[in-house]
Amino acid sequence: MDVRSETPTSPQAGPHPLAAGAARARRCAVVALAAAALVAGAGAGAWAQTAPSPAPSAVPPAGAAIPPGTNGSSPSSAGATNPTGGVPSVPRPAAAAARPLPPVGHLPIIDAVVTFTQPAYYNINSQVRIYDPIDIGGTVRIPITRTLSASFDRIVEGTVNQPLERVLIGGVPNYPGVTRDVILQYRVDQQIKRFGIQAGLSFRHRIFAEPAANGAPTSGVSRAPFPLSNNSTEHHFGYLGVTYTTPPIKELLRSSFAFTLTGDAQNVDHHVGTLCTAALTRAGACKGVATGQIFYVDENPNTNRYYETTQGVTWIVPIDPRHGTSFTLNERWGALNFYENTPYPWRWSSALTYQLNKRFSPGFSLALRHSDFHELPINAPFPSPNAIHVGSWDILGTFHLDLNNTFK
Length: 408
Hints:
single chain, 12-stranded antiparallel barrel, disordered N terminus
């Protein structure tokens, strides 16, 4: 039967039952779609508020400060005009309150550094026949606040384990023997935005010196942290340094530069000793120490402390931040060495170090480093115009362990 013939044409007549059902179905579908769109929009907005921020386009390399006021996330687009037309998008719900930062862990953060070293400048095989090329150093850091920490460093190998380059003294070639030192540092670091402040004590100890050709005992080696020695090669000093790190410079591959100025203070004759001879005993100069023993002597009573400075600049290049590859070039000059038995600090015209870094995982990184140091001709340890020239090639493997993450 033709349904249309049964459809009333009078305006007073009610709608046909089938037509009314179709209209109700259409209205229900529209409401359902609108509800689904609203739920989807709200769900997307809520997910956007809880999902992790996208990774920054360039991660500042290790040692560089994060630019103030940025965290690498993109700006919020909540409430923005729909990019596909003139219809505003469904507003996202208000952002929830920011999550509080987790508490600062005070357990040690350990970086164990295995260093393999080879001399960069030497002339004869005898200088390296008893050379020890590998040692373990590193850093133990204890966070105090988010920007304040205390650290202990053990610095080994590199230029503190080197035969020096040949020098000519009186026209005769001189090949310095092999020595190996260890530097121990106790320091406190404070970060204030782009400024870093570091204060500490540095202790350099000689743990090996090549024996004399006649087999005489090695001299100048530390027998205790504070040895009574008349041939001490210690250098102990305090320092206070300030470093400013620039924001990344887009035109230079997003490089940063760090500028450092350090003030150094060295007590005069801190551990200098001399042998009490029979003549000194008769003169009453040994201060009660028996003949043949070592006692301290003040060679310069008018001076109690030296004050010096060290300057430096570091170029930091984040080559491939996503894969943890970076390059640093550091140049320093000034008073880098203090020794107990020299009348003044040794000064350097250039202490150049450049290093390529690769992070393989959160717990391991590898670096290749080259150092090239030039001392000013200051008549120590060689008569002028001779001066120290020393350098090294180093491979450093760093194993990182944060106990705050281990024992959560």
